[in-house]
Each structure stands twice: as structure tokens, then as C-alpha cells.
Design goal:
By secondary structure, the protein is an alpha+beta fold. It is built from two helices and five strands, in the order E-H-E-E-E-E-H. Helix content is 24%, strand content 37%. The protein has a five-stranded mixed sheet.
């Protein structure tokens, strides 16, 4: 299950024009690039990033946490920057 904070969702829509409620297929991308976000993790919460393809927005970057064993909580999402596109393409070519 994928969840998010509604206030944060509205902020992401305003700032990045990406709706957290419409990117669940991000985690279905077989070529998605998953990274642990050591910079933003804390002792009590490990954060992760994914660069992956969505049907609605194309290639996105998203930050998330595992809220529980069956729940991913999205923190933010935005369109992928140029360096992210390059990393995604390098990862995709490995398969």
C-alpha cells in the first residue's frame, strides 16, 4: 500500500506539478533505480529514493520511507533531473 501526507501532497502538486496519488506505478518499473538516502535518514527512520518511469509523468525521482512492512509512505516526487536520467539509462542498459 502506498500512502502520503495530504498537506505534503498538495505542496508537491503546487511546487513540482506531480500528484503523489497518481504515481503508484513508479514502483512497478523493472528498471527503477533504488537508493538509500543516508543524508536524510535518521536513527528512527531510514529514507530511500527511487528514479523510475510512470505512465502519467514519465521519469520521476521520489523519496519515501517504509512506514510498515506493507506500507510505503511517499515524501516527495518531482521530474527527474538530467543526471538522474543518465543514471537511470545506465541502469536500464545493464539488463
Amino acid at each position: 500500500m502506498i500512502t502520503w501526507d495530504e498537506e505534503k501532497r498538495e505542496k508537491v502538486i503546487k511546487d513540482h506539478r506531480v500528484d503523489l496519488g497518481e504515481i503508484d506505478d513508479l514502483f512497478e518499473d523493472a528498471y527503477g533505480l533504488y537508493l538509500e538516502d543516508f543524508e536524510h535518514s535518521t536513527e528512527s527512520e531510514a529514507r530511500f529514493n527511487v528514479i523510475g518511469m510512470t505512465s502519467r509523468y514519465g521519469l520521476l525521482f521520489a523519496a519515501y520511507v517504509y512506514a510498515s512492512e506493507n506500507e510505503i509512505r511517499l515524501i516527495t516526487a518531482r521530474r527527474a533531473e538530467n543526471w538522474m536520467v543518465r543514471e537511470y539509462e545506465k541502469n536500464r542498459k545493464r539488463f
